[in-house]
Amino acid sequence: MRLAALIVMLLAPRPASAELPGVHLEPRNSALRVPPACILHIVANDMADQIGRHRSPELEARMRAAAKAPNLPSIHLESRTTLAEFQEAVRPQEPHATVFSNFFAVAANKIFLIEDEPYYTRLKRHIEDSLAHEYAHYLQVTYLGYTVANLATDDAEFMAVEYQNNYRAAYVRTGRVPACP
């Protein structure tokens, strides 16, 4: 009986700690292959092609320059961020968050990313396409005028998933490393 209890205890997922960053992570963490600004550049250009040019030349130009804009959101990895820090930043949008997740916290201007490799492997995803998704939300707010309420809609989420899928298809599944400006 003791051995079975020990096995169950060792295999059970551990809850995130409010005091220690990433204590529940597997030892294998996913890593970005390119600088975050490169991923933003790709998503912003994709969005400028699909949306910006149809709205106005000015919006298209601003979106294409997004990766060089001041005040880009800071990126916070799960292994270096406590659950309490995450909860504080996301509270205006997600007041009852109990676990760390990939998230763009609008008021805090922060992007939070899970970096647990088994999580991404299980979902057939990668940390880079998750960052592309969160950058799509950042672009929605900054350049398309979305509010926090807009971000909670299916339309906003479907759009972010589209850009995430585009990035995944072009770079993650092919193994290609994006050329960064």
Q: Span from first to last CA?
A: 59 Å
Shape: globular
Return Rg in Å. Answer: 18 Å
Q: Which class do the helix and strand fractions yield?
A: mainly alpha
Helical fraction equals: 40-55%
Beta-strand segment tally:
3
Strand content: 5-15%
The arrangement of helices and strands along the chain is: HHHEHEEHHHH
Poorly predicted tracts of residues: 1-26
| pLDDT averaged over residues | 85
Read across the widest sheet, the strand sequence of neighbours is 1-3-2
**Given the structure, what is the number of helices?**
8
Largest sheet: 3 strands, mixed
Q: How would you describe this protein?
A:
The protein has 181 residues and is mainly alpha-helical. The protein has helices spanning 2-11, 36-55, 57-64, 83-90, 117-123, 127-144, 148-151, 154-172, and strands at residues 74-77, 103-105, 110-113. A three-stranded mixed β-sheet has the order 1-3-2. Helix 2 packs across helix 6 and helix 6 (127-144) packs across helix 8 (154-172).
Q: Can you give me a brief rundown of this structure?
A:
With 181 residues, the chain is mainly α.
